[in-house]
Amino acid sequence: MFGDRMRKLHEDGFRRYLASGQRHVNWQGTELIGLRKNGQEFPVEVSLGELTKEGHRVFTGFIRDIGERKQAEEREPRRFARLLFARA
Length: 88
Description:
The protein is α+β, with helices and mostly antiparallel strands. The protein has helices at residues 2-20, 67-87; strands at 30-35, 41-53, 56-65.
């Protein structure tokens, strides 16, 4: 199942980061596929942060649904093509 596979990838990546300290994704914003409770997939942007305070590591994550933005990006080339050919 998609959710189980992604969860495993996340856990493996997190363990690898804790062991090596090397980041394998852009923590400022990486596009991934999210999974809603109803099983529907949707595009997300994930930003991560880390803070060490009093010897404790704290991680934060922000997940943004970018579905509308992705749809607009897909429409833009078609819109541009219509404008271009309308002038010809």
